[in-house]
Amino acid sequence: MAEDIQDAVPGETPVPDPIAEPVRLEPDTRNKIYLATWSSRFWAWLIDVILVILFLNIVRGILEPFWPIPLYVDIFHSDPFEIGFQTIFFFLYWTVLEGFRGQSIGKMVMNLKVVSRTGSKINYQLAALESLGKAFFPVLVLDCVIGWLGMPETKLRVFNRISHTIVVKTDYKEPDGVFYVKEKE
Known about the structure:
single chain, 185 residues, mainly alpha, two-stranded antiparallel sheet, 7 helices, 48% helix, elongated
């Protein structure tokens, strides 16, 4: 086409080449989903672990006269039933909160959310499958290491891949028609 314009007679309007296809610049209509970083996912997980341990230790203090449960962090003096009970509590915590809203308390604090690969809300079954990898600590270590080494740049754990879920960064936006005025401190 550039050759056609160069060969054109001065004063005449160049005629475009009828064989050349026109280039169309269309806006990108795909939704953009921002995957959460490993560090923000770690901090959300740690917030959840601390909150659940605090809760379980409060319950332990209340039940201690009737049922002597060791502190959660004292796993060397726990029996398998107690460790299993506490691990199942973690599993249920993540399954219920992430299945209901896509966010645990830690994810709310870090502005993260678990969604399907298309960005839609997940159900309780997917939340349960995704939570298996992080509720059982030995599995979590393998889950993350395999995700980091075996699937680099995807920001997925193995159980994210199995459950077809992703963890995304969410925005805290003002509602439509509302503008927040932020004073300087």
